[in-house]
Amino acid sequence: MRYLIAGLAACVFALCAAPSASAWVTFTNVNGYETQAEFVDPDVVGYPYVDEWPVLRQVKRLIDDVPRWQNETIVAAIHSINSPLIRDALVRARNEGVNVYVTHSGTDSGSTMAQSLRSGLGSGSHKWCTYGTVNNACLSTVGGARMHSKFMAFTRTVNQRTGQMANRVVWFGTANFTSGTGAEAFNDAMTVYDDWDLFTKFVDHLWISYWQGINRMADVHRPAFGYLRSTGSGIEINVSPDQEGDLVVDQLNRITAGPGCEIRVMQNQFGRQGVASKLASLAWGGCTVWVLVKDVDCMVVHYLRQAPRMNIRQRQNMHAKTFIIKAPMNGVGNYAVITGSHNLNERALTYNDEILVTVPGNPTLHQGYIDYMYRAWVGRTSTDTISCGPLGPG
Length: 394
Hints:
Elements: H1 2-14, E1 25-30, E2 33-40, H2 54-64, E3 73-78, H3 84-95, E4 99-105, H4 112-121, E5 126-129, E6 151-158, E7 165-173, H5 179-183, E8 187-192, H6 196-212, E9 227-229, E10 236-240, H7 247-252, E11 262-270, H8 273-284, E12 288-296, H9 298-305, E13 310-314, E14 321-326, E15 335-340, H10 346-350, E16 354-360, H11 363-377
Parallel strand pairs: 3-4, 4-5, 11-12, 12-13
Antiparallel strand pairs: 1-2, 2-8, 3-6, 6-7, 7-8, 9-10, 10-16, 11-14, 14-15, 15-16
Helix pairs in contact: 2-3, 3-4, 8-9
């Protein structure tokens, strides 16, 4: 019976279509800027070492392909690390003439690997995010907050698809540089090449504020600071904490509901009733919604299950924070992906330094993400039986 239910769920989710062959990486462009998306499926067999999983392998490649001794720069915002692959790549780049600078959540300061990274880079290239004894954040002044972002930027590195050197490259995603919440869980990430304005927004606006500890405030999500948009690719970055609203609901409010609208949600933690209520409203408006979650609050389940065209499943090893949208947003386009570090819990909204990144989509990028969620939806720990309760700190 369990396999029958899984099979029926698969057909409901993807009209019984199998994933495409290019299951681990999707090459496309976003408004003319070359972009690649990488995906982790912890259910697959055949990877002999955890550090060979796609997202971490891509990060290592990006680091290794930065030209040496040419005054190039790598900046990174890291929440947590236990991967020797990434530590060694960053330290090796630093020792071979690359300027490497890392901001790192103070919550990770007790980690042996994190301390090893700091030792290898030197204190001038590594900074713990802390706000006195108040928190472990770079921007937020809220007690108990942490820097939970995951992004990197490179002045130059190689475009994997073309093999050519690219300028101003940005990587962002849901994965930590760890085994449990990086290489051994469902995660996704994107690399955007040659978008100089996106690079500027990530580095000169956001990352430098992390590094210098400036622009500290309890409500980071203000138009003057917390909303960034590339004039090139059109990729948008929303920064939290947000004390006055819900930046995820703001994004969902842009969706035009109706026949053909599809919204797929992959979440590590889902506790915000406002987001659940909005998804239910979109379903009532004609959208078909699929929600795949690891930890979920019971009231969220209640809101979701009241709506038609709503499908919800639960599974382990889910670390994504991703929305896959097939519908116009503000009447423009037909596809979008929302990803980044932002869980659907209260701490992501009102405590932590987080990024929520909205990427204008296209059929190729959309299909890559569909294949990714399909594998999670029908995977070995995916179930229709939902176990709900209060969420952890997140």
